[in-house]
């Protein structure tokens, strides 16, 4: 049986106390029984759990969003280590971490649920486990780059903390990440004005996590998805005298592919393709607004709505939404010890999201397709900005030319 190891941030200090004074059985009976069973094969399971609580307490004090993200990643890592590898998390070697990455890419379906489930609920003063809870959400596709990046970040921070606390002697995560066959390798030549992987992970991930506390942040989340996932400019999302972006501008062709009709620079219309991942966030946003999951052809609802008032949002208002998410991410990066990334994020603007999305997708999409979705008049513009050629090698070969 799979058991949730960690409750909410509010309950964490009680879990720590119960584990320390041996009263876990009276307050968390299913968890206590589970730890006893695991201890038959992993004798250090209770010690492992105490350290996990210590780590989450340290990182959760200032940021509940960070707590939730690290809890989810590390909880399933612990369960895999105990139940599948049958080792303490501090006994795992490089090949074990690699095996866990393989498991992350294709988890056992028994470890996944079809919906978000609560973990524990009070029942006459006892925290009772939800038997339907699972560590993963069931998905048809394999783990995304964003999911894998979040996993590597959590494990890396955890083992760095373990080294400082002298709980372990090595951190194998960086070398596993460097040689992972599942991650898209970025060029060493960085294009200006883009977010790094970890910066984007925090911008999007922290906003998504905070939606649980403040549902109105779903609007921020959808805006981020549009700017990065569809390569949009803020002006293309905003209310303008000659154009009002509305939900009916989403349309589906006869083959089932979705598009968004956009008015870009020079009042030129273009149809941007929607990824399957984006469609899921579109559904999520519309359900938050009380709309049907998918748009209708006659729907006049604004694309990005105002909380108060009628109509769509202006450029300045949308920019504020993005900046709000940037601020949340910057603080979370600082809390987690990523000072350089936080400082660099402080200089970012909303337009960086368009560059970030295009730069990332340029590694896998045909140049012509990318250029059309970006709205570039010439394919050479896309090539010049987003295709990362080896500039140094080209310069060396060019230096040998004769007049």
Automatic annotation (TrEMBL):
User: Subcellular location, in the record's words?
Assistant: Cytoplasm
Domain of life, per lineage: Bacteria
Q: Which UniProt keywords apply?
A: DNA integration, DNA recombination
Please name the Gene3D superfamilies in this protein's record.
Intergrase catalytic core (1.10.443.10)
All residue ranges annotated as the Tyr recombinase domain in the record: 190-400
Chief location category: cytoplasm
Report what the protein is called: Site-specific integrase
Which species is listed as the source? Pseudoalteromonas marina
């Amino acid at each position: 049986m799979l058991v949730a190891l960690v409750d909410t941030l509010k309950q964490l200090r009680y879990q720590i106390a119960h584990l320390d004074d041996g009263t876990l059985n009276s307050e968390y009976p299913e968890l206590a029984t589970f730890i006893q069973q695991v201890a038959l094969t992993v004798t250090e399971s209770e010690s492992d759990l105490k350290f996990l609580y210590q780590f989450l307490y340290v990182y959760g004090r200032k940021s509940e969003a960070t707590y939730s993200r690290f809890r989810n990643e590390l909880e399933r890592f612990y369960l895999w280590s105990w139940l599948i590898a049958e080792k303490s998390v501090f006994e795992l070697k490089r090949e074990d971490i690699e095996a866990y990455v393989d498991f992350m890419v294709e988890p056992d379906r028994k470890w996944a649920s079809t919906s978000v489930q609560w973990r524990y609920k009070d029942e006459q003063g006892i925290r009772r486990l939800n038997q339907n809870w699972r560590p993963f959400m069931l998905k048809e596709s394999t783990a995304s780059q964003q999911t894998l990046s979040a996993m590597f970040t959590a494990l890396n921070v955890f083992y760095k903390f373990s080294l400082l606390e002298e709980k372990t002697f090595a951190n194998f995560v960086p070398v596993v990440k460097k040689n992972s066959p599942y991650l898209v390798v970025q060029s060493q030549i960085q294009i200006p004005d883009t977010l790094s992987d970890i910066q984007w992970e925090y911008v999007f991930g922290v906003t998504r996590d905070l939606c649980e506390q403040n549902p109105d942040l779903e609007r921020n989340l959808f805006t981020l998805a549009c700017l990065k996932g569809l390569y949009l400019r803020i002006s293309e999302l905003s209310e303008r005298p000659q154009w009002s972006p509305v939900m009916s501008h989403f349309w589906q062709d006869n083959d089932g592919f979705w598009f968004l009709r956009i008015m870009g620079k020079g009042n030129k219309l273009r149809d941007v393709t929607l990824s399957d991942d984006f469609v899921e966030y579109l559904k999520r946003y519309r359900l938050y607004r009380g709309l049907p999951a998918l748009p209708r052809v006659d729907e006049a609802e604004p694309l990005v709505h105002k909380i108060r008032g009628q109509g769509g949002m202006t450029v300045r208002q949308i920019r504020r939404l993005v900046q709000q998410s940037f601020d949340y991410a910057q603080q979370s990066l600082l809390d987690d010890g990523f000072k350089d990334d936080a400082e660099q994020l402080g200089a970012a603007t909303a337009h960086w999201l368009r560059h970030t999305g295009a730069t990332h997708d340029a590694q896998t999409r045909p140049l012509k397709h990318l250029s059309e979705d970006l709205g570039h008049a010439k394919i050479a513009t896309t090539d010049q900005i987003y295709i990362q050629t080896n500039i140094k090698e080209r310069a060396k070969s060019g230096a040998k030319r004769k007049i």
